[in-house]
Write a structure and sequence with these properties.
The chain is α/β, with parallel strands linked by helices and 256 residues long. Helices cover 41% and strands 20% of the residues. It is built from seven helices and 13 strands. Helix 3 packs across helix 5. The longest helix is centred in the last third of the chain and has 29 residues. The chain is flat and about 90 Å long. The N and C termini lie far apart (86 Å). 21% of the residues are buried.
Length: 256
């Protein structure tokens, strides 16, 4: 039996049709010696600081740098802290059952860094050791899927892609957790959020907003030339704008 894991149900259904799996079960589709299941985005992620003994926002415990990052099922906010998403837990059990019943795995998560990370985190969290190949496609047409299945690559060929995604994930955690807590403690105005990508992006948006808000219109003059040749018309404007009208007139007289 061969397991195929896609990133989302819609993709799994497309692949299931191609491989001849049509028996729909709860969380997977089975048939023709295949079991096609799916993730629901990031089912597994890095554990929050509480898992490393860092509770609350305390200046003395910063920076929080785990000796080794822990993986947990997707977390959602609860009344106190976080708890596992019940939907994620359910689908993880399905995936684990599918993997256990199969001899090998075909990874069909999205062809990219995040798609690779989604599978590898699930694979690591479940402590799975089954061999896996990679289906690398950028289209869900029948031809693309069939060609991809006929040209599977060894999963190890994408190890560097996984390492890249993992480093990005851990960097986001280190910067986001520590910077957010540090700012929140320093500002004393509730919880503030900083992020490796989020903060510089917001800074650019804010800078552009301020430029627009503080913009002061400045009048200028330029020279325009209109010519016609039979049924053809030609218009042109000088590139160098003049801030003073007298300079524009002076240039106009010179051009004449």
């Amino acid at each position: 039996m061969i397991a195929i894991i896609a990133e989302k149900p819609s993709v799994a259904r497309e692949i299931a049709v191609i491989v001849g799996a049509s028996d729909k079960k709860d969380g997977y589709i089975q048939g023709n010696n295949y079991m096609v299941t799916w993730a629901l985005g990031h089912l597994v992620g890095l554990a929050m600081p509480e898992e490393y003994g860092a509770t609350g926002f305390v200046r003395e415990q910063l920076p929080i740098i785990p000796d080794a990052f822990k993986l947990l099922p997707r977390q959602v906010k609860a009344d106190k802290g976080y708890k596992a998403d019940t939907g994620a837990l359910k689908q993880l059990k399905v995936i684990e059952s599918v993997f256990n019943k199969c001899d090998k795995i075909i990874v069909a998560t999205d062809a990219g860094r995040e798609g690779e990370l989604i599978f590898r985190y699930i694979y690591s969290y479940l402590e799975c050791t089954k061999p896996f190949d990679r289906l690398w496609i950028s289209s869900l047409t029948e031809k693309a899927i069939r060609d991809g299945l006929n040209n599977l690559k060894a999963g190890t060929e994408y190890d560097n892609l996984y390492y890249s995604a993992r480093v990005r994930s851990e960097a986001d955690w280190l910067v986001g957790i520590n910077a957010s807590q540090a700012l929140s403690i320093s500002a004393g105005q509730g919880v503030c959020s900083l992020g490796r990508v989020q903060t510089p992006t917001l800074a650019m948006v804010c800078s552009r907003y301020r430029e627009h808000k503080n913009f002061t219109p400045v009048p200028y003059w330029d020279l325009r030339l209109d010519k016609s040749f039979g049924n053809h018309a030609l218009s042109d404007i000088t590139k160098d704008r003049k801030e003073l009208q007298r300079e524009a007139k002076k240039q106009f007289e010179k051009k004449k």
